Batch of 2 targets.
Target 1
Amino acid sequence: MAGGVGSRFWPMSTTENPKQFIDVLGVGRSMLQLTLDRFKEVVPMENVWVVTSEKYGKMVAEQLPEIPVNHILLEPCRRNTAPCVAYVAWRIKKENPKANIVVAPSDHLVLNGKEFERVINNTLSFTAETDAIVTLGMKPTRPETGYGYIEADLSTPSARNKELFRVDSFREKPDLSTAQRYIKKPNYFWNAGIFVGSVSTFVNAFRIYQPEISQRFENLLPIYGTDQEQEMINKVYPECENISIDYAIMEKAEEIFVQPADFGWSDLGTWGSLHENSKKDIYNNVLIGENIHMFESTNCVVHTTQEKKVVVQGLDGYIIAENDDKLLICKFTEEQRIRQFSEA
Amino acid sequence: MAGGVGSRFWPMSTTENPKQFIDVLGVGRSMLQLTLDRFKEVVPMENVWVVTSEKYGKMVAEQLPEIPVNHILLEPCRRNTAPCVAYVAWRIKKENPKANIVVAPSDHLVLNGKEFERVINNTLSFTAETDAIVTLGMKPTRPETGYGYIEADLSTPSARNKELFRVDSFREKPDLSTAQRYIKKPNYFWNAGIFVGSVSTFVNAFRIYQPEISQRFENLLPIYGTDQEQEMINKVYPECENISIDYAIMEKAEEIFVQPADFGWSDLGTWGSLHENSKKDIYNNVLIGENIHMFESTNCVVHTTQEKKVVVQGLDGYIIAENDDKLLICKFTEEQRIRQFSEA
């Protein structure tokens, strides 16, 4: 899934060039490319599909030359994750009704790729033999209020796979005291938005819990892969309800499992999490750019295009981000106002 | 005089595009253009001469289309103000040995143009009839340690012109306690680096006090205005001593007068003086740029190219300056380190 607009990272990320297409970490690969890299040992590249906005199609093709161009599906408008997953599920079903799929965001961070691979392979082996949808539950390390939580029934692991447990409930982003309560319990996990299941399981779940969405993509079965696909999608897609896969399917379906996992995950949804997850200098600054010079400055993130020479003196706890035609300087503590700043 | 490199205003000002060529004040005219504007009622534009570095010749011609292109004299290297004044004095002498000239820096600020005109016209009327060189003495408003001072003999004004007084001495940039002492006395003035005199007076002063420099420019009299001028200047100029007009002539010559003046002058030599002399918002910020948005920020200067959107949150007392490929954020109190920062 690569259709997000990344407004919280303005001006590093903009509608024209959102977070998934940016080398956020300064490692030479965009978040999207790093996401693909994680799957290279898991799935042949010709089996990868990307759903994105029509205006990002060209960028996906440029950044991911390894995947077939006709596997880049274009949403004519944003309708959250449920229509996105439905579209790609039916589309893959047309190619291979027995496919087993992993649905994943394209702008998250995973530090331990080997463990990620092991966990994904484990869940795929489970969903290949069952009608379950598995979601990955991240071991919480702090009372994060920016994530949804998964409540698991840890009493009895699946008989088929001892790493998998039934989900009791999905919990929306909590307030701080609720989050503090959650993380004291062993059966609460962060919802990373990564879902694994066979394509027929996804399709069947949509048929049962989202008949209107299902009907639309089912009707298009004859034209997937033909010249009329985009035209018809452009017609049908806007009619879909704007709803997340969590609400549309996960909270309703029966056979929902969680695999608790710990592979150094972050959604990198805030400058704070970017700071936390990046390499720091001895003054706790994260410097992303080739020519950044800090004097008497601590606890900052500086993100710039690679050609720019940046000199920062005397700042503590600031975000400094700039691109060709925008510059933001603001305190970390005010980062929730960045959307407001971007509209100033 | 438009040959300076403006290193104290990095990165707004760079060797490629120094301060005199920049719209420092955000008024739509560069400092050089504002300087020419001040002389428009004083002197016909075809009598204006500019001495600059050879690499800025094109920029001067572009910014000052009103003046004759062959009045832009090009220094092949920097040799401070004495060789610069000598060159233009001999060059003008060739055109008009009776000329009366004003020598002025091109990157200073004058707020009261009418009073400037009046003062310049007064000094010109004096030097047209005498062999004096007149320097303008600015009424000091604070114990500035960044300027040189002029000590005047206020006891007897010139018999010809009651605004003019003999100079007792030129004083170098003082330390703070000395500056505090100076500004308590009525006869100490800031040296604005503006000199007025007839061209024959300047030339004669050079002949007496700087015979080596004089000899070089005197020898070129036959080739001024010919195709060989630049070639010969390129040969002769580097051999000149690197010395200021103050040291070379003013401190040595006999007939040196000062006209005390008060027309809102600043050399705009520091970000501090730029801040002091510019229009401020109600939070005491100076914002130069078309698209700058301040939140909870006070006592800052922000200078940017006009297309850039800049958002600043939570800064007090900072300089934020950027151009195409450079960005500086530093405290006002550290501005004397800007040269160091520029070399980082």
Target 2
Amino acid sequence: MQEMVKVVVDAMGGDNAPAEIVRGAVDAVNKRNDIKVILTGKQKDIEDQLQKYTYPKEQIEIVCASEVIETAEPPVKAIRSKKDSSIVVGMNLVKKGQADAFVSAGSSGAILVGGQLIVGRIKGIERPPLAPLIPTKNGAALLVDCGANVDARPSHLVQFAKMGATYMEHVVGIKNPKVGIVNIGAEEEKGNALVKETFPLLKQCTDINFIGSVEARDIPYGICDVIVCEAFVGNVILKLYEGVGAVLISKVKQGMMTTLRSKIGAMLVKPALKKTLKAFDAGQYGGAPLLGLNGLVVKAHGSSKANEITNSIIQCVQFKQQQINEKIREKIMMQEN
Amino acid sequence: MQEMVKVVVDAMGGDNAPAEIVRGAVDAVNKRNDIKVILTGKQKDIEDQLQKYTYPKEQIEIVCASEVIETAEPPVKAIRSKKDSSIVVGMNLVKKGQADAFVSAGSSGAILVGGQLIVGRIKGIERPPLAPLIPTKNGAALLVDCGANVDARPSHLVQFAKMGATYMEHVVGIKNPKVGIVNIGAEEEKGNALVKETFPLLKQCTDINFIGSVEARDIPYGICDVIVCEAFVGNVILKLYEGVGAVLISKVKQGMMTTLRSKIGAMLVKPALKKTLKAFDAGQYGGAPLLGLNGLVVKAHGSSKANEITNSIIQCVQFKQQQINEKIREKIMMQEN
């Protein structure tokens, strides 16, 4: 029998916790029999939700945690002081090897800090980046780093490129993924100090398919599979994607409602349009993995519904079965030798 | 009689030069009698275009320039060696006070370098930023800096904020414009080193309406009127705006063409939709001013058609009549005292 992948899920994290989180966990185990979910959080709250559903009981377990880390709390202090929070308890299970992965829609800061302090980095990894998939014209690209390490150094970006390429190849299934660095022009001499220093280092990497600079304009067209950038820039890219997308869709809707003629047209267009636009919605991919840790940590959107939690949990299976961390470890060791 | 505003237009710059540039100039003088356009470039090429149109002859003049700076040329070298290029000749007219403004769709690098080396900075201005208007849900916002000064310092960003606010107030007509700094979270303690250092300096400025950090997600909603950021980030914002917009529109079109039902709907929706989406197109605003120079320099898109050139020329009138540079000079002097 196939080995079970054990995924801890923070039942208390996110705007829609615990209801949507628990539902997401139930949906995941109902879909796949190779997943065991461990829900951390307040026992009573979790049980109240679980009793609504039918699911294979042996695939969901509760581990109690009496505290909750709120979004506004300073992350380092929260991780250190709230030892019995759903995040700290959950991450400790991964640390002790009692689980393979941890999924949370809770405080980004606490997840990033906890990932480093509790789960810990793979030996040789300098900084673990947050790496969400973002939609492109005909697929998706991995954005590393989208917010974990501001003011990163060139050596960090090189590791981001390697880890990102490993993820895209083995989790998403893109053969020899194209890696690009975000720049303000296509030429090698363009850029800020960080990009100018990083560019030649990436060119020297024989274990990735580095295609050079990519301009932000070309990212949505899917010009590369792994988009390497410093966290401040990555965060701007991720959030502007969401913002421009949302405003433009609202403009399209508004435009369709301006005349009687267009209103009739809108009714006819709606179903087909909805389907196409869904392909351009970031939510479908589940959360963003924090790469380079001794175990997988996935950060889901704070606004996650059950569907994103389910996708985040299922993502962990591929990550574990493809032995992504072992592959990252190998790449980093080769780099050091 | 109202004083004429003299605008030099680089007839040789951009993908559609000289045809669209000359047509844009003709349209501008046909629209307004307070503008005089001086076209710089190859006399024969310009005359061949001009003879196609009817316009008040006294409002367009040609000043010969035998050379053209190509986009791929290293900017500093090009500005120094091609003394008889349409850009250098045109900028010299502004420098000597024979014209008020210079508009070009040519090489960005050459325009930025020429602006500093030939036209020169206003005394006290450390770095002149490129400041395009970008569309928002119900209007437009000024993005400073979108590409002129990578790796800027906090004092530069403070000047960008002041110049941007002056522009939005007096050229675009937004009373007491809201100024925000691009950040990766709304809280004051968030950000990279540059933003953390700049934030308190902006808070101290009593002459601008600083609203704090803005996340990229909120920019398209029009959360502020002046968006302050370092050039690398600004360039990513500008280009991602274009990229996400273009891909999403193509997705909408594709979605509308998937079924017979949706195709019929598309025909009905099209006119209304086109109008709404036009409001979200950056081209309508004309080029981006390079703020803080002794005279106005406007960089139009390389792909500019006549319409963008006309809008860029007309923008110069408002800039001159509102005495933007005098207002910037005052603000900077107050800062120094």
